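Database export, one record per block. Field names are fixed; values are copied verbatim from the stored entry.
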Amino acid sequence: MCRIVTVAMLFLLVGEAAAQDQTPRQGSDGGSYFGAPVLKYTAIRDQGAVMFGGRGGWNLTRSLVLGGGAYGTMTEVDAPAGAVPTAPGPLDIKLETFGIDLEYAIRPAAPTHLTVTAFMGGAAAHYVDDGTKDQEGETDFMLLLEPSVGLERRVTDWMHLNLAVSYRLVRGVEQAGLTADDLNGASGALAVKLGKF
């Protein structure tokens, strides 16, 4: 987690110099859009996990963005022993999240500004074989809410960096061996927003 935060802070500091002469487009009261690859560090079953995905959005106003996103685990997270009795060996948990984003930017004209986002939708969890990565058992679908607060830096007219912290809340967990507490947790995320701002 410290490495990801350090790298993210370096990106923001480098962006500080590049953004000094950048000014936001005037009269942009909507019609702006972006797409962003996103890297997240989180905890699942008290184990560190990296999630990767993307999000995109359309500016309804200068401050308000409506969009969506999807993310999935990239690293191994050990499943509880015996979660799928018929499994041939140890299992890993795979978690995917997907939904809509509602983001509000505070003072969006400033080169560095705050964002507040509500990510709402669903999540899917399933077990995979640690060796073959074949799915074992059924996929469990649940409801998801993940509010976040971010610090966004304008680097150029077409690129913004957003460093955010969030808290994932899931409901309706029915997967054998898992509870909501195993999947709820804080995340740190770095998004590289590319588009028209």
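Remark 1: The two ends are 30 Å apart (CA to CA).
Remark 2: Strands lie at 33-44, 47-59, 64-73, 91-106, 112-129, 135-154, 159-171, 185-196.
End of record.
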